[in-house]
Design brief:
The chain is mainly α. It has one domain. 52% of the residues lie in helices and 6% in strands. It is built from 13 helices and five strands. The strands form two sheets. A three-stranded antiparallel sheet has the order 1-2-3. The chain has a two-stranded antiparallel sheet with strand order 4-5. Helix 4 packs antiparallel against helix 7 and helix 10 runs antiparallel to helix 11.
């Protein structure tokens, strides 16, 4: 996103401004699909909808800094390693066991498409629920373009492809249009990250719609930050000529997606930091510090993602992996070599967002 904007940068934007593209010299076409973004005169990729969105985010972050407020950050040490990791995935591809890698790439593309649901998040009357003014903040622009831009980036918009289509194209370029396992969506929805969970309220004193919005933002922010590991995994794997049929094009597509995700992380960090700098009105007539609400929600999200959710995902992947290995000439030997390459990792004891008061 670059350095913070100058102090006189605009803080108010219309919806159309936050959705606006800059000029492109050439479009991005992936898998015969015209995708968002494009290339400038020097051939550099330019992310979509950042003509005004990128400077707006920098301006809101600069305002936070001027007012003496910190920009929250999720520690990279909380990011679990990818499973299978790059070396494990390369081993599988070299040995002709392609389904687990195809499945992983397909799930990533499906999850990207699910990202469009952020446009359906209900934004309550924030001016009535936040004690301090919110004019000129990212918080005030969530419904005014930020959620919609995020949704379009992930799933595409109208006849323009987004990250879902870009991941599919990267997979098909690298692995030469592989067969997609017919049960990939069913398995994904039946267990692990796609399974719907009943969310228990963590902050019942808050307006329910406000808590739901903040909890969703905390979860999406954590997922976006952790997705940087998936981008690194995908780019390293698909750009390796040892296992990729089109390493330059496939790896480049993943790098473009990675750059597109930066505004998502930054506007969510900005808005949640703005909440942390304010007080929130409660349904009982009292108030609570926004900082405590954000910490409670981020702490719960990060503990879930680094513990239960990670293990569920690993078990789901391993189940299909073992099935796929049975077609190999020496499945037991392959599994032994595969397991020897696994990345050891223990979740950090703290998330960095532990509640500061017992009441939280």
């Amino acid at each position: 996103m670059g350095a913070p904007a100058a102090s006189d940068a605009p803080l108010e934007y219309a919806v159309d401004e936050l959705l606006a593209d800059g000029p492109y010299e050439a479009p991005l076409v992936a898998g015969q699909v015209r995708c968002h973004g494009g290339f400038d005169a020097e051939g550099r990729y330019r992310s979509p909808r950042t003509l005004q969105r990128a400077p707006a985010i920098r301006a809101w972050q600069a305002q936070l800094a001027r007012d003496g407020h910190e920009l929250l950050a999720i520690d990279a040490a909380l990011m679990p390693p990818q499973y299978p990791n790059v070396e494990q995935a390369k081993l599988l591809l070299r040995e002709g066991v392609r389904d687990p890698v195809v499945r992983r790439l397909t799930i990533i593309s499906i999850v990207e498409g699910f990202g469009a649901i952020i446009r359906d998040v209900k934004v309550p009357d924030l001016a009535a629920l936040v004690v301090e003014p919110i004019e000129g903040t990212a918080l005030a622009h969530l419904r005014g373009g930020l959620f919609e831009a995020h949704a379009r980036d992930e799933a595409g918009y109208r006849d323009e492809g987004g990250h879902k289509q870009m991941w599919e194209a990267a997979r098909d370029l690298a692995l030469e249009n592989p067969r997609i396992p017919g049960d990939v969506l069913m398995r994904m929805l039946g267990q692990g990250p796609g399974r719907r969970r009943e969310r228990r309220r963590a902050l019942p004193r808050l307006d329910e719609a406000l808590e739901t919005m903040l909890a969703t933002m905390a979860q999406v922010l954590a997922v976006e930050v952790f997705a940087m590991g998936a981008f690194d995994w995908g780019e390293r794997l698909l750009s390796d000529p040892e296992v990729s049929a089109n390493p330059e094009a496939a790896g480049s597509l993943v790098s473009y997606i990675r750059s597109d995700e930066s505004p998502h992380v930054e506007y969510l960090r900005s808005a949640l930091s703005e909440v942390s700098a304010r007080s929130l009105r409660c349904v009982d007539g009292g108030t609570i510090p926004g900082r405590e609400a954000v910490r409670v929600l981020l702490h719960a999200t990060l503990r879930g993602l680094t513990r239960e959710r990670r293990e569920e995902q690993r078990q789901a992947i391993r189940e299909s992996l073992l099935d796929s290995m049975q077609a190999h000439a020496q499945p037991e030997s392959l599994l032994e070599r595969y397991d020897a390459l696994e990345s050891a990792w223990t979740p950090p004891a703290k998330t960095g967002f532990e509640p500061e008061t017992p009441e939280a």
